[in-house]
Amino acid sequence: MLIIKDLHASVGDKEILKGINLEINAGEVHAIMGPNGSGKSTLASVLAGRDTFTVTSGSMQFKGEDLLPLSPEERAWKGIFLGFQYPIEIPGVSNVNFIKAAVNEHRKRKGLPALSAAEFLKLMREKMAIVEMDSSFSGRGVNVGFSGGEKKRNEIFHMAMLEPDLAILDETDSGLDVDALRIVATGVNQMRTANNATVVITHYQRLLDYIVPDFIHVLYQGRIIKTAGKELALEIEKKGYDWIINAQ
Amino acid sequence: MEENFIYAPSVTSGEFRCRVPLKGARQQFIVNGSVQGGASPFTLEVPEGCLRDEMLQLISVRNADNTAPLSTRQIYRFGKHSSGRILQCFHTFTMDSFETEDRVEIRLEEGAAAEFFILQNEHNKASHRTFYDISLARDASLNMVFVSLHGGRIENNLKVDLCGEHGSCDLGGLYLTDGKQTMINNVELEHYVPECRSNQVFKGILDDEGVARFYGRVKVDRDAQKTEAMQANHNIIISDKARAYSKPQLEIYADDVKCSHGSTLGRLDEEEIFYMRTRGIPEGEARIMQQMAFAWEVLQRISSEELRDRMQSLVEKRLRGEFNNCRNCSKNCC
Ligand SMILES: Nc1ncnc2c1ncn2[C@@H]1O[C@H](COP(=O)(O)OP(=O)(O)OP(=O)(O)O)[C@@H](O)[C@H]1O
Ligand SMILES: [Mg+2]
């Protein structure tokens, strides 16, 4: 589904991604871990098409298509979803109008008509239930005044509405209380099929108890320095990253 | 309601009718400064205790019948404990260069409540200057919202005097410029007595070589303890050549007051836009959405939902550049 080859990206003169290689197939769950500042969010942003970062070399292929020339919205229409580490507040745009516009833009690209008000409402209720979100959140400005945990839940609600093929969830677990973590993780699992894939960026093994990864990658200084199975998370939890970094 | 004009909806200016009258609103035309079917100056007196919830729409137009510079006067008096809502629409119908100067007097007596919604939609060769002289007696409240949609040069000068305790004044303004348009808002607001509140939000979205000026002074007299006064001016610059000049000022002589003022100048927020785009909202739509959100803080002050929706869609059309499709660009209200 996604093939990243020797990807380099920088901000100005500063190179942040220094040769990422990663292959993700349909049906898989990949976890990306790594110390603060190693480039995890940058990788997610570059995949989503953020233009603050310049891809200086390498390639990203998504479902056989080169991602580089595509705008963020085109990538979204192709099925890429980015759950933000720090979801953005958009005062004045209600969550419901926002997600309705987004859903209808996706439908337009699929040649489908816009949803009627009733159809949309039904869909929204259904998807809000997945993350056990209160309907009062729909009328409020996008993420405005939401607590940290509520923002993360809202990201997963957006994901549920858009049904992406590849969801990249950047620290969706941080800021969630124990119950919220279980709810969100269960929601993500419910959405899993043999045709989609999930990338979770996380610092904690806890999330991976729920969303069990097929692979764990450790990102360090812009490179993937280790890839292993789900047991790696437990080891990292116990021993930190030094032993992996030093073994390089 | 006592008026010195005859309500005559059949009297219209040439071809023009407001094609989308608000439900229940009464319409009155003022053509080149003269009230149709009545005397000038236009005077509206709402007698004591009289509550008028329906909107009175005044459609003030200029056309080729008189292209000379024009000065007009309007007088509004709201008696004790009366209320009323006014929608003023300003248009230019022909492409002549118009210069208009209006003097508008608004008096709110004790306990009166009035709302004014003002739509300014004139063409690029029109220059329109208005002087509002406003006073509020004890317990009176005024809500005023300007939507300066289009016009070569629009200048609103407001002088507001809060003369009686517990007076409340809300002023909102949204102005949109493109081309070489200039929009000016000058507000002089004075708290003379204790325990009044005033709240001003003026916001602009400036494109092309548009220029906006905001000058606001809130003066709180020594006796005006427990005053609450807020004033804000925010501008978004869309193009490099647009300009905004902003000077909010507070002059406070009382010591027990809650006052704030602020002014910001910014661009569209690229983080927000990126976020919207990752959800599949195209860049252009994301930009419009953000501008509409910015405008909302002002538009939400329009208490009539029907009018608010109408204004919102006008603003959206304007931001989408759909106004310029029409050569006679001042009548796109429907
Ligand atoms: N816009 C930017 N300008 C300059 N430096 C940046 C920018 N964005 C990211 N960086 C730098 O790139 C490096 C990687 O940042 P990134 O946010 O990708 O780390 P991360 O692995 O997600 O960290 P964390 O675990 O703390 O979320 C950091 O050193 C960061 O300061
Ligand atoms: Mg990060």
Second CATH tier, the architecture of chain A: 3-Layer(aba) Sandwich
- Portion of residues within helices of chain B: 10-25%
Catalogue the unreliable spans of chain A: none
Structural class computed from helices and strand pairing of chain B: mainly beta
N/C terminus separation of chain A: 29 Å
Compute the separation of the termini of chain B in Å: 29 Å
Strand order of the largest sheet of chain A: 6-9-10-3-11-12
SS strand fraction of chain B: over 45%
How many separate domains make up the residues of chain B? 1
Jot down its keywords.
heterodimer, A: 248 residues, alpha/beta, Rossmann fold, six-stranded mixed β-sheet, four-stranded antiparallel β-sheet, 10 helices, 40% helix, globular, B: 334 residues, mainly beta, nine-stranded mixed β-sheet, 19 strands, 50% strand, disordered N terminus, binds adenosine-5'-triphosphate, binds magnesium ion
Question: Which secondary structure elements does this structure contain, and how are they paired or packed?
Answer:
The complex is a heterodimer of chains A (248) and B (334).
Chain A: E1 2-11, E2 14-24, E3 29-33, H1 40-48, E4 54-62, E5 65-66, H2 72-78, E6 80-83, E7 90-94, H3 95-109, H4 117-130, H5 136-139, E8 141-142, H6 148-162, E9 166-170, H7 178-191, E10 197-201, H8 205-210, E11 215-220, E12 223-228, H9 231-239, H10 242-246
Parallel strand pairs in A: 3-10, 3-11, 6-9, 9-10
Antiparallel strand pairs in A: 1-2, 1-4, 4-5, 7-8, 11-12
Helix pairs in contact in A: 6-7
Chain B: E1 2-3, E2 26-31, E3 34-35, E4 42-46, E5 51-62, E6 70-78, E7 83-92, E8 98-108, E9 113-121, E10 126-136, E11 141-150, E12 153-162, E13 168-177, E14 182-191, E15 197-206, E16 211-220, E17 228-237, E18 243-252, E19 258-266, H1 270-278, H2 283-299, H3 305-319
The complex binds adenosine-5'-triphosphate and magnesium ion.
Magnesium ion (MG) binds at residues 40-41, 85, 170 of chain A.
